[in-house]
Amino acid sequence: MKKVYFFGTGYCAEAFGARVRKILEGTGEFQILGFLDNDKTKAGTLFDGYPVYHPDILKEAPCDLVLIFLMEEESYQTVFRQLAAYLRPEQIREYTFPLKELLQKNYKDTQEKEIKELLEYISDRKISTFNQFITADYTYDEVKWDRRTELPYIDFRTAEGRIVPMYYPREYKFVKKNGGLYVENLLWEQSEGSPHLYVKQDHTVADGDCIIDAGVCEGNFALKYVDAASHLYLFEMDPVWQEPLAYTFRKYESKVTIIRKALSDKSSDRTCRIDDVVQKRKVDFIKMDIEGAELSAICGAERTFRTNDIKASVCSYHRNGDEKAIRRKLEDYGYQTETSEGYMLFLYSDDTWELGDLRRGIVYGRRQNQHICR
User: Fold this and answer.
1) Is residue 126 part of a domain?
2) Which tens digits make up the pLDDT trace of 211-223?
3) CB atoms within 10 A of CB 205
4) 229 shares its domain with 84
5) CA 8, CA 28: separation in Å to the nearest integer?
6) CB-CB neighbours of 207 under 10 Å
7) Residue 209 lies in domain
8) Are 3 and 50 in contact (CB under 8 A)?
9) CATH code at position 362
10) For residue 265, which of 303, 228, 223, 297 has the smallest C-alpha distance?
11) Residue 100, CA atoms < 13 Å, CB-side half-sphere
């Protein structure tokens, strides 16, 4: 049995430690000895049921492998150099290393060009959600503070070029840079070539469209098209976003309806069906990104899909098998389907770590008499 330590007891280890452990234990080849942390006050305590040691333990209790649970590259390199005093470089790996091995095993015989390129790309790089499929530089937006509402916000550019405020929760975890606060530019995910692209050349929002944005969060998709839309239905159940959304769209109350429930195939005190909410207006565009509830929401929108010519962009990366199920349901409603290019590796899904699978990010749906090509 190969002896393994996990380095780090912070957020990364909390989020991914159990998932990595499951892969290693599933092979029957690894024994996890515990966690390492430079914080000496943690030595002798337990983390996730395992003992915590200071890295000096490696002097007297050597191991075969240390997996580093840190997300920031600078911190990772610092720890790597520290551990190199005890171990060979090949014995020090980033925490996604077992997932890389699983992906290489699962797709070793693939002939698909995109997958072969992805496997080559991650062979000597850290795994990420998008890997080589987004080449645009990552950018940040400066956070400002609205003293009247006491809410943070950023300046956001709409599709029409107007600069408007987009608000965030007070407790949002911003990035600290150069003495200021910043937020990751989420429109980076909408860069050309992204597997997570809601709108593309032949699948766009048109002036006058009635839009459903399911899974709004901070509202960047809806806010981008707020000028062009005739009406916007915003579905967001997370309480943390309710106040920020109310302020972001307060000047557009006549054309924006915010629904504070989860989408489903049934309506209840906490859930609703699109068919029950949208009854009088023609719907033109639907964007769905609702953490794996997309298929259920589509089932609750049968009348809406069948009686409208909708352009739909539905996320299919949250769960294994969603792409096929979503395509099948939309096709049953009379829509042609295709998927976004590239693949996503959704690290926050347990079954990604269990199955080691790559997933298409978006299923596009359009009426069969509309142009669609793939």
Assistant:
1) no
2) 999 999 999 999 9
3) 20
4) no
5) 23
6) 11
7) 186-367
8) no
9) 3.40.50.150
10) 297
11) 18
pLDDT in tens, 287-344: 999 999 999 999 999 999 999 999 999 999 999 999 999 999 999 999 999 999 999 9
35 contacts 50 by C-beta, under 8 angstroms: yes
User: Is the CB of residue 64 less than 8 Å from the CB of residue 58?
Assistant: no
Amino acid at 211: I
- Is residue 267 classed as helix, strand or coil in its secondary structure? coil
Contact status, residue 63 vs residue 3, Cβ threshold 8 Å = yes
CA distance 247 to 165: 9
d(CA 132, CA 195): 10
Number of domains in the chain: 2
Last residue of a domain, one of 37, 61, 95: 95
Whether residue 107 lies inside any domain: the answer is no
Residue count (the chain): 374
Domain presence at residue 125: no
Strands 151-157 and 144-146: antiparallel
Contact between residue 326 and residue 294 where contact means Cβ atoms under 8 Å apart: yes
Asked whether residue 186 carries a pLDDT value surpassing 80, the answer given is yes
Looking at the fold, whether 78 and 220 belong to one and the same domain comes out as: no
Which DSSP symbol is given to 174? P
Distance, CA of 366 to chain centre: 24
Specify the CATH number for the domain of residue 82: 3.40.50.720
Q: Residue 180: helix, strand or coil by DSSP?
A: strand
For 231, 269, 310, the CA distances from 298, given in Å and listed in that order, are: 20, 19, 12
Asked if 328 contacts 337 with a C-beta cutoff of 8 angstroms, the reply is no
243 & 360 share domain = yes
Could you tell me if residue 121 is inside a domain?
A: no
Cα–Cα distance for residue pair 183/68, rounded to 1 Å: 25
**At which of 26, 60, 95 does a domain end?**
95
Q: How far apart are CA 136 and CA 141, in angstroms?
A: 15
What's 232's DSSP letter?
E
- How many H-runs (helices) and E-runs (strands) does the chain carry? 11, 21
Q: Which of 243, 221, 285 has the alpha carbon at shortest distance from 149?
A: 243
Helix, strand, coil shares of the chain, percent, nearest 5, are: 30, 25, 45
